[in-house]
Amino acid sequence: MNRLEERIRGFLSHYPKLYALIAGIGVVLFWRGVWNSVDIIHTVFDHYKTYSSITDTPIIWWDGPLSFVVGTIILYFTGAFVSSLIGNELILSGLRGEKKLNQKTEIEVKTESSSIAEIKDELAMITQKLEELEIQIDTKE
Asked: Could you tell me how far CA 73 lies from the centroid of its own chain?
């Protein structure tokens, strides 16, 4: 199963627009399936109606689950399932053991902010020193 996913992802990675189109279709089918399945469940619990009250069209019970399954298969085999549904940053922060922003204390947020500011200052100093070295090299030539 993983080999097939890797081969599909490898092929699609050479065609990013096609990759995006297929993954986009997978996302839409997945959420359409969820939406329609919940509508069907609601209809079943709402006095076993067999027609939609808005359009008076018959309800096809398998439409939602089929969309859900097809969307899930597309997303899984393109490798877009996890990243499209929960996002890469959420996964990476979990792997790094980071807390969510609303779980951090004010002190932790301030400490993190000051650390980032210090890194920016150091980077600016390094950039300035590199520019000075470039000027010295240019004047020697």
From this structure: 16
